[in-house]
Every structure is written in structure tokens, then in C-alpha cells.
């Protein structure tokens, strides 16, 4: 039977905090208990001194990535995420939550994002085991939930963040990146003024990504060959998957370039004409002021 995670998320929002039993809490994921709990912000901060994997105390509040002396797992803190029961998780999951939550979206889409991340974290926590197993489960769940609820708006809003989150957790971001690039190519084709594209790379791109520089594809060829993301990108994660940061640079049709040049020339001529008129006006104003002083 399919479980409605969004309904499950809403059903536990009016439950008192499981720790203090006084303050109303919010649903969060307890990695140690491998389940969802309702906990308030104050108790969430108090839990930030315990390892989310084995529950042993650190003896201090974790603010940076720290290694647990008992289980040996490395954990990090994400203070801004409302989904972690102790604000602690693996460094990869903390970075992934930052990547997914860095976009301002309309309330309906933001609610979908929160419910999806909640469900993905719950599945990752239930996978249990060490940090590598939790990261891998989170990456797989992110990809499944994003593809299941994919719309054009969600692709443009959250596509990059989900791809980045999956890569940080050791997963393969290429399917989502490919969908993003193909969507961009189709939008360029609908503009009617773009005939081809070339690849732009960043200053610190790998040599395989730089090798694509200068190559030109027509829109049809780019949609067929899918040159981006680069298949051999060397900026790999723990799973061996690359994170290509190249993008397409559109090349305009010659007809549009001629029109654009004519428009630029007209704007320049108008600017020169206005400047000459202003010079004449200033000269006449200065002459009139000089005549007034002589009277």
C-alpha cells in the first residue's frame, strides 16, 4: 500500500514535544531512533550534543563537522533545517538540505519541497546502518521523489538544488542535469532567434569539460547528442559521479544579428543627437545669462 508522506507529515504537526511534553513541536527526523518525532526548537538544540547515530554525548554542542569517539561517524550541524531532530546529520545530508532549501518558492511549491525532503529523510533514517548507507539512501530517495513529482515549475525551481544534493550524497546527478539542459535547449528553440549553441566552462573546470570549449552544435544536434552534462567530468563524488558545471551559450541567427546591429546604431545615433541638442541648449543658456549680467 502506498503511504501518503505529505498526509503523514501534516498529521503530526499538532502533537506536543516528545522531550519536554509542554511546548508544541514540529515533525522532525530522528536518525538514531530511525523514525519521525515531534520536537520543539529548544529540545532540538539540547539534542545537538548527542551523536545522531549512536546517541553517545559529544560533551559539547556540535557547530562544525565532528567525529564521534564511540561509533567513529562524522556528523555536522545544520541549524536552518526544520527537519532534523537534533540539527545533526552527516556532512553530505547537511549540505544537501542547504542546496535544496536555498530557493525562494511560492507557498504550494515550498510545501511540496518540505514534504518531499521529510519523506526522503525518513526513508534514509529507516535504511539505518552507517553514514554511507544513510547518504546513499537519501540520494536515491531524492531522485525518486523528484522524478515522481516532476513538473516544469519544479524543474526550474528545484532542479539544480536536487541535482546538487544528490551529488553531495554520492548519487548520480546526471539524469536531472540532462533534463535541465534539454529544457533549456527547447526554450531556446522556441525563442526563434537561436540557431546553435556552444559550451561555456568555469575557470576551475576539469580538463574534460574544457575540451568541449569552442564546439558548436545546432539545437537539433544538441538535443540528440546531449553534450551536457559532460560524461567524463573529473570532479567526482564518493560514488564516482561527476559534477559538470558547464552551460550552453546561445548563438543568434544572422538575421537577428543584423537587426540587433541596426537597432544599436539607431540608439547610438539618437544618443549623439540628444547630446548635440544638449550642447546647443547649454550654449544658448550661457549666452542668455551673460547678456543678463551686462544689463
Task: Note the main attributes of this structure.
three-stranded antiparallel sheet, 295 residues, mainly alpha, 12% strand, 8 strands, 51% helix
Describe the structure.
- With 295 residues, this protein is mostly helical.
- The chain has a domain at 173-252.
- The chain is 51% helix and 12% strand.
- It is built from ten helices and eight strands.
- The chain has helices spanning 5-11, 41-46, 91-100, 107-127, 131-148, 152-168, 174-191, 207-210, 219-225, 254-294; strands at 26-30, 35-39, 66-67, 74-77, 88-89, 194-200, 216-218, 247-252.
- The strands form three sheets. The chain has a three-stranded antiparallel sheet with strand order 3-4-5. A three-stranded antiparallel sheet has the order 7-6-8. Strands 1-2 form a two-stranded antiparallel ribbon.
- A hairpin with a 6-residue loop joins strand 3 (66-67) and strand 4.
- The radius of gyration is 28 Å and the shape is elongated.
- The chain starts with a helix and ends with a helix.
Amino acid at each position: 500500500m502506498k503511504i501518503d508522506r505529505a498526509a503523514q507529515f501534516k498529521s503530526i504537526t499538532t502533537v506536543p514535544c516528545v522531550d519536554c511534553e509542554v511546548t508544541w513541536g514540529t515533525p522532525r527526523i530522528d536518525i538514531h531512533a530511525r523514525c519521525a518525532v515531534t520536537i520543539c526548537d529548544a529540545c532540538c538544540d539540547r539534542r545537538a550534543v548527542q551523536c545522531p547515530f549512536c546517541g553517545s554525548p559529544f560533551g559539547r554542542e556540535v557547530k562544525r563537522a565532528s567525529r564521534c569517539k564511540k561509533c567513529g561517524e562524522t556528523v555536522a550541524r545544520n541549524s536552518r533545517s526544520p527537519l532534523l531532530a537534533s540539527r545533526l546529520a552527516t556532512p553530505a545530508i547537511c549540505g544537501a538540505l542547504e542546496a535544496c532549501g536555498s530557493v525562494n518558492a511560492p507557498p504550494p511549491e515550498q510545501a511540496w519541497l518540505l514534504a518531499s525532503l521529510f519523506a526522503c529523510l525518513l526513508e534514509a533514517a529507516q535504511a539505518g546502518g552507517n553514514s554511507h548507507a544513510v547518504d546513499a539512501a537519501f540520494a536515491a530517495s531524492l531522485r525518486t521523489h523528484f522524478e515522481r513529482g516532476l513538473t516544469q515549475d519544479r524543474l526550474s525551481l528545484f532542479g539544480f538544488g536536487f541535482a546538487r544534493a544528490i551529488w553531495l550524497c554520492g548519487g548520480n546527478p546526471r539524469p536531472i542535469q540532462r533534463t535541465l539542459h534539454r529544457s533549456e535547449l527547447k526554450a531556446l528553440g522556441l525563442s526563434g532567434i537561436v540557431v546553435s549553441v556552444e559550451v561555456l566552462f568555469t575557470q576551475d573546470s576539469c580538463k574534460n569539460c574544457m575540451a568541449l570549449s569552442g564546439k558548436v552544435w545546432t539545437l537539433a544536434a544538441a538535443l540528440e547528442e546531449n553534450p551536457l552534462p559532460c560524461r567524463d567530468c573529473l570532479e567526482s563524488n564518493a560514488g564516482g559521479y561527476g559534477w559538470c558545471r558547464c552551460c550552453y551559450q546561445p548563438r543568434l541567427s544572422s538575421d537577428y544579428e543584423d537587426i540587433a546591429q541596426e537597432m544599436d546604431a539607431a540608439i547610438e545615433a539618437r544618443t549623439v543627437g540628444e547630446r548635440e541638442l544638449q550642447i546647443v541648449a547649454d550654449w544658448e543658456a550661457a549666452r542668455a545669462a551673460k547678456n543678463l549680467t551686462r544689463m
